[in-house]
Each structure stands twice: as structure tokens, then as C-alpha cells.
Structure to design on (998 residues):
């Protein structure tokens, strides 16, 4: 580290912009959440924690929370399992590896909104190609039990590549001697995976889990385009609920209260994972 | 035998990733009459009518241009602020440098929905509603943590000796920054640029909220496609294909860089 | 569709109108791009408007857009010095509403005349976004319009919009099938169920009754028709009255149509207008609740049900009376307009009998003026205009309150949950009652 120059001059612009555009809103959203704030009717009144009291008895809030947790848990676990399989598959040399990797990256790179539109067409119950191939008549986006799973499927398709990329990189730094040694000891493939690959990959897995859980918990675009939260709010997540309250009718007080809850939840998730991580790498 | 199984699985993976997109291309070429019926899977009479329609009737070109301007400006700004900041954090003495880095990174876990309502009020107060600048500002801020993270990690790998030597030669720190550090870190900068560009090109929530007509970006335009009762499936498919094309080219050209950027930091730490 | 492009760079006042020549377009975009990059948010000032330019925002016009455009050209001809620029909004009415809310709230004056769904007028008036145009219609002139829309555009005894065209829910039925079984059009919901069951038992592949049960505004329209026809309501004066035995019974009946009687297929829980129209139009349903727009399509040249469709008012419960939901669009003026006189002229022109007649012929929009339902030329076009007249006279606005959109946001998921069988009517209405009371507190607690 070099002592002479005061580096703060370099850091200050970025820091200032960041604080202005993110820290200020965080406090402002807290402030809003303690008000009855109807922007369009110029109603603004301090009501203390009333919004939160109402929130806790609001069925729709609990329903959205339940959907969000279900969505995140299921999509992240499948993504991790599937991602691990694909990463193990790709973790060897074969021809066209570069092209394969590029194709795998595609779903991650295209706009979420576009992928939701693509899948909307595939899921169509009358003339969707999925029902055609399955020979079924499933109302994918219309029935409450299918719709959330359809949304999860799109999320899996969209973000498994991210998981694959991180895990492949993690696999590459596991020293090859470890595998060779294990094999000379006569260990089977499963045992090698369990005793070498998995423990050494754990830190990367935790990072993946942290990123993915946070992302999934904030899910908005996919659901907004695919189902708009319906049918019967079976796919309405916290972000979507907050958005509807905030921007369809500009109820900024109550909407902000919901946003604050999203914030609190993501905060808890991060703390949980960071605790796990510092626990798993005692260095 | 094992080899065959491997290639079968590989094919399955590729199919899973590419099939929806291929289906979108097939759909975009179907004449209107065949859109709502299956079979045939692939039309015998492919048509470009939907492509013509999105370009001439739905002003897609204009929305693409909006997106390009926003994404390019965001990338530029984010790199400028991010590289300066990273240089400071990695090479110079900054009080509280680790808490500062921690604060920056914690921004990346902020749920956008929690900041969108105050930002809306803020942007409205500045008179920036429905301008591209509003999007450039928010996108820059939300991509800064990523830029700072990748670049700080990279700058740290450049030996301090180079800095010292230049310093002894009488270079001011800013000269060192843009004469030495920037050229040396070009690979990392390209990586960051691609990731930030993709982020901005794809961003939806802020774009949906802060724009209404003249500054609408592509993801919003595709979502709010005009149509009264019927949904213009062919046109949506065509628009999707057009919009995805630049991203596909980016990915094919730069997949190595993208992978490097995504894995930066995540693996070490 | 003519390609009149709105080339405002970032929301300034002036506009470059460019014909759709690809090259010119690209060059302009590039130029615009440079302007934006260089100056970020300069309002472009490229050409001074030669005359008062008024911007007219409306939803996408169905039918023949060219003829709609001709109408605007006619206005420009009659009013030299005024240029009308029309801009279509996104497809769904919810998205249009959001557009208006966000832009009006920003105090923007870059549009002058707006077309509004009937349910928005009180909200926009209360928010102070619309020009008070009480003086535009005398009591006598008001009486020339249907009473429902006039009620919907009046807020605190002031007029904020002029009805443009009208819509109302009605029952389509298959004349041929009813005749075959010697049935007359149903008057009560029970009649509808028994007729459906009778016909379904011998006509394989035909659904009994289809309607709009997807989670959106259309479901609220459908549900209100059941509630009202059982003497129920959402609000009574300032009191929230949604959780009532009448409403519970009415709502349970909607679910029973699917689950108990089986006359409605479960696909109605995800249907909006168009899927319903397709099913009925292919001859696969006996009864359908929809809006009048479907009539022309059923009687088009290649339609499988041509000449076999009848319409009537919706049924009611035994003790209630049939009350169709009022729909349609109204024209209002942005309070911040810089051209109030010109905007008034446009509103007056578009809501005149001549324009409404023209819109009916060009786009199938039903006039909001009563006299046109006796017009010989229009009668020739659609023989059932007298029936529609009776229907529109009965049409009832959804709760006329500035908080309607918030109420609808509460009602949509609750109704949807009942229709899909996820919640009992009791639970759903109790929850709706609580939420609506919470919302209205804001109004009464100031």
C-alpha cells in the first residue's frame, strides 16, 4: 500500500453518487412507510407504525411472502442441483467447449422480459408448443398450482447458466492431484465427489446461494410479464405487490411499508449466508 | 459408450438452453394465420411481415436506440467512476477503505423495489421523468458495486513496484492511473464493460417506472406492446429476436471475458 | 397505419414529425442520439410549431384507423390554426391508467385531450388533473347523453369529462339452440343454469355459459353484475358494504356455475373477453357474457355462428333486477393545458352526434348520445340498436369514487380466489371489507 497520495479523492465521487442515490432513498422509504401517503390526492399524514400493523393482518401480504419464499426456495435449490450437474459435465475437455459455454450463457444474457415473453408463448394452453409436445392440455399460466411452477421454470432456465459458470470456475481450482490420489486409494466416483469435490466447492456454493437467493427473493420482471401476479394472486411476490400498490395508484405510504419488509428480509438472508460463510472457511 | 452418454447429456443441456430462443425465431417467421395453430411446427410459408411491422409500425428502432444510448452512457460512467474508485481503494491510502468497500458491495444486495419509490419522487423533483438521463443515473449507481468489485480485485494484482517506479520518475498519481493502470487493466475493463452493458440493456423495473413514451427502452416496449384485445404474438416474437441479437453476438464474441467477470471475486473470496 | 412518428427527444415541447422513410428515420435517430448524449436532457427545440398543436392521447383505436384519422383531419380543416397530434397508449387499460397517473402526477402538460375509462374520471378529478368543464354542457345537453356516463363524469356536482362512447355487459345466446329446445332467453340466473344443463346434456362439446373470470378489471365487472342483481353493492354512501349476505350468495353462485352446476368450464377462471369470444364464435357455447363489440364479429362473412346469435340483458337473481356494468370512454382536458380553448373545441367536435356516428360506422364504437339509436343509417347497420338502447339506459357505473382503482385492486384478487375455488366467499368478502375500509380511512380521516 502506498502512503503518500490521498486516495480519497479517487474514491469520493463514486461514494458520493452511491450514497446519494441509494442511502438517501433507504431513509426516505422508511420515512414514507410511517405515513399515509397518497401522492395523487396530496394526502400525507404521519401515522406511526400503522402501516406495519395493517401489513401484519393483511392476507395478501402473507400470501405474497409465502409465494416469494416458495419461489426462491424451489428455484434456487433446483438451480443449484442442475447447475452442479451441468458444471460437472462441462468440467472436462471436449471439442466445441467454447461454443457450448456460449450457448449455456445465452439464457442468462438475454433480457428477462424477453425470456418471459418467449416462455409465455411456449406455455400457451391452446397453441403452446409445450402442451403440443407433451400431448397435454395443461393450463400452465392459468391454474394457480401450475402458474407458480411455470414461473419457477423460467427462472431456472434463465439463471442456471450463472450457477454453472461460477461452479465450473470453482471446480477448476480444485487441484488435480487430490483426485488422482483418491483414485489410487480406490475411491469410487460418488465417494470422490462427496469427500473431495463437495467440501472444496462449498465456499463457491455458498457464494452462489447468497447471490441467487437474494435475486430470487427480489423477483419482479418474470412474474410481471408472465402472469402479472395472477391467477388469484397465486404468483404475486412481495416485489410485485409493492409495485402494484406503489405505481398503479401511487399509495406511497403502504407500498413503502411493503418495500421495507422486502428490505428487511433480504437483509436477514444476507446476514444468514455471511454467517454461514465465515463459519465454513475458518482461515 | 460413456462418450455417447456424455454427448447425449451435452446435447440435452444445449437443447434446454437454446430451444426457447429457436422457437421464438420459428414463431417470428410464421404468417399470422398459422400463429395460433399447431401443427405445423415450422411454417411452410415463412414471412418477414412481423419484422417489417415492428420496425415500421411499432417504432422499435427508436426504442433500441434509447436502450443503446442508456446502456452505452451507463457503461462509460460506471467505468469512469468505478475505475477511479478502485484505483484509490487498491493502490492508495484511503481511510476506512474496507468499510467503504463493504458499503459499496452492500448496495448490490439492495432490493430495487425498496428504492424505487423515493427515487421516483427524487427524479420527478429534478424534472427528469421520462428522460434517458434518469435511467443512466440509476443504472450507473446500481452497476457501480460490480465495477468497483471487479476492478479493485484486478488492480490489486498489479504489483505496487510499478507504481513506486513511476512515482520516483515524478509522475503524479493521476498520470499513473491513466497512463499505466488503465492500459494494464484493459482486459478487466472490457469484462466490466460487457457486464455493465448487459445489466443496463436488460434492466426493467426502473425503466418501467421512470419512462413513459419518448424515453422507453426495449424491455419496456416489448412488455407494453400495443394491441387492443388480441395479443400480437408474431410481432412480439419478431421484436424479441431483434432485441436479443446484439446480446447473442456479445456473448459469442466475449464469452471468455464474461465468464472471467462473473467469477471474479466469487471464487477467491 | 400511417407512420406519424413522435420524435421528441426527451420530453420537450416541440416535435419532429417524420414520414416513415427508413433512412430519414435512422438519421434522425442518430442525430437525436447525439443530442441526447451531448446534452443529456435538453428539451429539443427543432422546429417552432406553426399553429397551436394539441396532443390527444387515447387507447389503440379498433377497426379502421384511417377513418379515425380522417375524423381528426376534418377537425383541423374546420378549425384552421389547430393541429391535432394523436398518440396511442399501451394496450391494457391498467397500463394506460398507470401512464396517466405517473404523467399527470409529474404535472406534465405535454398532452391536452385525454380519453379516459369511465372508472378513472372521479380519481383524476379529485387529484385536480382535469379541467372543470361544467359550462360545456347545459342540463338540456346533458340529457342528450345516457344517464350512466353522465353520472360517471360528474364529481362533486362538477363536470370533468364528456362521454365519448359507451359500453355495457350483456348476454349473448344461441338463438338456434334455444329454439331447438323450445326455450326462451333466461330471465333469472337459475333459468340460465337449467337451460344450459338441458342443452349440454344432448349437445356434446358445447359449454353452457362462459364469462370473464381472469384476475383483471373485467372480472370485477362480471362480479358486480351478480352482486347488483342480488341487491348487493360495494359501497352504500360512505359505508363499505361489501361483506353482506347478498354479496356472499351472489359470489357463491359464480363459483357454483363452475363447481356445482358445471355449466361453466373451469377455463373461465382464466378467460378475458377474447378467449370467450373465440369459443362462442366457434359455436362451442350456448351463453356468453361479453360487451357489444362481439356482435359484428359474430355476424361477419365467415363466422360459423352468423345469424344464429341473439342478445339480451343479463339475468338476475329472483329478487333482484338485471344491472349491466357500464363501460366506455370519456374525453377530458388536462388542467395544465396551454390551449384550453382548442382542447375544448376538439372535445366538442369528437363528442358531437356527427363524430359519434362516424366512429360507430368506422370502429364500431357505440355512441354515448341517445338520439343516434333512432338514426336510420345506423339502424341499417345494426338492427338491434333499440335493444342496446334499453341496455345502455340500464347500465350502471361501477362505484363512482376517486378510490375506485384502489378498490378494484383489492377486489380483483379476492374475486379471483373465490372463482378459482381457493377462498370461500365469506373469507374473501371479509378480507375485502377490511382492506377497503383501510383505504377509505384516508378520505374520511383528514
Amino acid at each position: 500500500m502506498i502512503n503518500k497520495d490521498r486516495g480519497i479523492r479517487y474514491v469520493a465521487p463514486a461514494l458520493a453518487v452511491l450514497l446519494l442515490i441509494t442511502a438517501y432513498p433507504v431513509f426516505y422509504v422508511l420515512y414514507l412507510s410511517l405515513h399515509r401517503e397518497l401522492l395523487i390526492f396530496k394526502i400525507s399524514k404521519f401515522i406511526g407504525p400503522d402501516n406495519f400493523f395493517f401489513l401484519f393482518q393483511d392476507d395478501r401480504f402473507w400470501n405474497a411472502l409465502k409465494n416469494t419464499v416458495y419461489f426462491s426456495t424451489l428455484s434456487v435449490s433446483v438451480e443449484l442441483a442442475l447447475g452442479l450437474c451441468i458444471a460437472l459435465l462441462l468440467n472436462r475437455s471436449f471439442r466445441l467447449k467454447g461454443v457450448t459455454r456460449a450457448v449455456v450463457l445465452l439464457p442468462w444474457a438475454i433480457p428477462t422480459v424477453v425470456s418471459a415473453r418467449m416462455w409465455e408463448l411456449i406455455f400457451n394452453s391452446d397453441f403452446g408448443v409445450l402442451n403440443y409436445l407433451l400431448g397435454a392440455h395443461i393450463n400452465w399460466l392459468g391454474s394457480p398450482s401450475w402458474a407458480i411452477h411455470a414461473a419457477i421454470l423460467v427462472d431456472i432456465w434463465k439463471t442456471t447458466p450463472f450457477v454453472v459458470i461460477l461452479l465450473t470456475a470453482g471446480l477448476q481450482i480444485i487441484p488435480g492431484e487430490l483426485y488422482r490420489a483418491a483414485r489410487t486409494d480406490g475411491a469410487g466416483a460418488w465417494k470422490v465427489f462427496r469427500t473431495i469435490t463437495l467440501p472444496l466447492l462449498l465456499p463457491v456454493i455458498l457464494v452462489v446461494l447468497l447471490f441467487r437467493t437474494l435475486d430470487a427473493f427480489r423477483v419482479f420482471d418474470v412474474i410481471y410479464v408472465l402472469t402479472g401476479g395472477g391467477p388469484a394472486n397465486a404468483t404475486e411476490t412481495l416485489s410485485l405487490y409493492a409495485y402494484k400498490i406503489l405505481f398503479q395508484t401511487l399509495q406511497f405510504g403502504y407500498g413503502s411499508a411493503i418495500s421495507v419488509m422486502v428490505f428487511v428480509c433480504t437483509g436477514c438472508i444476507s446476514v444468514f449466508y455471511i454467517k454461514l460463510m465465515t463459519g465454513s472457511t475458518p482461515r | 459408450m460413456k462418450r455417447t452418454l456424455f454427448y447425449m447429456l451435452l446435447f440435452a443441456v444445449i437443447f434446454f438452453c437454446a430451444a426457447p430462443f429457436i422457437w421464438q425465431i420459428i414463431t417470428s417467421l410464421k404468417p399470422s394465420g398459422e400463429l395460433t395453430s399447431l401443427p405445423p411446427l415450422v411454417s411452410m410459408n415463412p414471412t418477414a411481415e412481423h419484422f417489417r411491422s415492428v420496425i415500421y409500425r411499432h417504432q422499435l428502432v427508436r426504442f433500441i436506440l434509447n436502450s443503446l444510448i442508456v446502456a452505452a452512457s451507463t457503461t462509460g460512467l460506471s467505468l469512469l467512476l468505478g475505475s477511479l474508485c478502485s484505483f484509490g481503494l487498491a493502490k492508495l491510502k484511503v481511510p476506512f477503505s474496507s468499510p467503504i468497500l463493504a458499503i459499496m458491495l452492500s448496495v448490490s444486495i439492495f432490493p430495487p423495489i425498496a428504492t424505487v419509490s423515493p427515487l421516483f419522487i427524487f427524479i420527478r423533483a429534478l424534472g427528469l421523468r421520462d428522460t434517458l438521463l434518469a435511467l443512466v443515473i440509476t443504472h450507473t449507481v446500481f452497476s457501480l458495486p460490480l465495477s468497483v468489485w471487479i476492478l479493485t480485485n484486478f488492480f490489486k494484482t498489479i504489483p505496487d513496484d510499478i507504481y513506486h517506479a513511476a512515482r520516483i520518475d515524478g509522475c503524479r498519481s493521476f498520470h499513473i492511473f491513466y497512463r499505466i493502470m488503465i492500459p494494464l487493466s484493459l482486459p478487466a475493463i472490457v469484462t466490466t464493460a460487457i457486464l455493465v452493458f448487459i445489466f443496463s440493456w436488460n434492466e426493467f423495473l426502473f425503466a418501467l417506472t421512470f419512462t413513459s413514451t419518448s424515453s422507453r427502452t426495449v424491455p419496456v416496449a416489448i412488455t407494453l406492446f400495443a394491441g387492443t384485445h388480441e395479443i400480437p404474438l408474431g410481432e412480439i416474437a419478431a421484436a424479441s429476436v431483434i432485441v436479443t441479437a446484439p446480446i447473442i453476438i456479445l456473448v459469442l464474441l466475449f464469452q471468455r471475458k464474461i465468464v472471467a467477470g462473473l467469477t471474479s471475486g466469487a471464487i477467491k473470496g | 397505419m400511417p407512420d406519424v412518428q413522435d420524435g421528441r427527444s426527451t420530453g420537450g415541447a416541440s416535435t419532429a414529425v417524420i414520414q416513415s422513410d427508413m433512412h430519414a428515420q435512422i438519421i434522425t435517430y442518430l442525430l437525436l442520439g447525439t443530442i441526447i448524449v451531448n446534452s443529456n436532457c435538453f428539451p429539443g427545440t427543432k422546429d417552432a410549431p406553426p399553429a397551436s398543436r394539441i396532443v390527444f392521447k387515447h387507447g389503440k383505436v379498433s377497426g379502421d384507423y384511417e377513418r379515425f384519422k380522417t375524423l381528426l383531419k376534418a377537425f383541423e380543416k374546420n378549425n384552421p390554426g389547430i393541429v391535432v397530434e394523436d398518440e396511442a397508449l399501451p394496450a391494457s387499460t391498467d397500463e394506460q391508467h398507470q401512464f396517466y397517473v405517473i404523467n399527470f402526477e409529474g404535472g406534465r402538460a405535454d398532452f391536452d385531450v385525454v380519453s379516459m375509462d369511465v372508472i378513472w374520471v372521479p380519481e383524476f378529478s379529485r387529484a385536480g388533473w382535469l379541467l372543470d368543464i361544467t359550462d360545456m354542457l347545459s342540463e338540456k345537453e346533458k340529457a342528450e347523453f345516457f344517464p350512466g356516463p353522465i353520472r360517471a363524469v360528474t364529481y362533486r356536482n362538477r363536470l370533468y369529462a364528456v362521454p365519448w362512447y359507451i359500453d355495457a355487459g350483456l348476454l349473448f345466446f344461441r338463438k338456434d339452440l334455444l329454439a331447438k329446445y323450445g326455450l326462451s332467453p333466461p330471465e333469472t340466473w337459475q333459468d340460465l343454469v337449467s337451460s344450459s344443463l338441458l342443452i349440454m346434456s344432448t349437445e356434446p362439446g358445447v359449454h353452457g355459459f362462459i364469462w370473464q373470470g381472469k384476475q383483471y378489471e373485467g372480472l370485477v365487472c362480471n362480479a358486480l353484475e351478480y352482486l347488483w342483481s342480488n341487491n348487493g353493492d360495494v359501497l352504500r354512501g360512505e359505508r363499505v358494504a361489501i361483506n353482506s349476505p347478498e354479496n356472499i350468495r351472489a359470489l357463491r353462485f359464480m363459483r357454483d356455475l363452475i363447481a356445482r352446476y358445471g355449466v361453466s368450464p373451469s377455463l373461465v377462471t382464466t378467460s378475458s373477453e377474447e378467449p370467450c369470444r373465440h369459443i362462442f364464435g366457434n359455436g362451442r357455447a350456448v351463453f356468453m357474457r361479453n360487451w357489444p363489440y362481439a356482435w359484428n364479429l359474430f355476424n361477419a362473412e365467415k363466422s360459423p355462428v352468423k345469424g344464429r346469435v341473439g342478445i339480451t340483458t343479463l339475468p338476475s337473481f329472483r329478487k333482484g333486477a338485471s344491472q349491466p356494468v357500464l363501460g366506455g370512454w370519456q374525453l377530458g382536458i388536462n388542467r395544465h393545458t396551454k390551449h384550453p380553448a382548442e382542447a375544448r373545441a376538439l372535445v366538442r367536435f369528437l363528442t358531437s352526434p356527427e363524430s359519434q356516428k362516424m366512429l360507430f360506422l368506422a370502429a364500431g364504437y357505440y355512441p354515448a348520445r341517445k338520439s343516434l339509436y333512432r338514426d336510420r343509417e345506423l339502424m341499417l347497420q345494426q338492427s338491434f340498436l333499440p335493444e342496446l338502447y334499453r341496455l345502455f339506459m340500464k347500465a350502471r357505473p361501477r362505484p363512482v369514487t376517486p378510490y375506485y382503482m384502489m378498490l378494484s385492486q383489492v377486489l380483483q384478487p379476492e374475486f379471483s380466489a373465490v372463482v378459482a375455488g381457493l377462498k370461500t366467499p365469506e373469507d374473501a368478502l371479509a378480507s375485502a371489507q377490511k382492506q377497503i375500509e383501510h383505504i377509505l380511512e384516508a378520505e374520511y380521516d383528514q
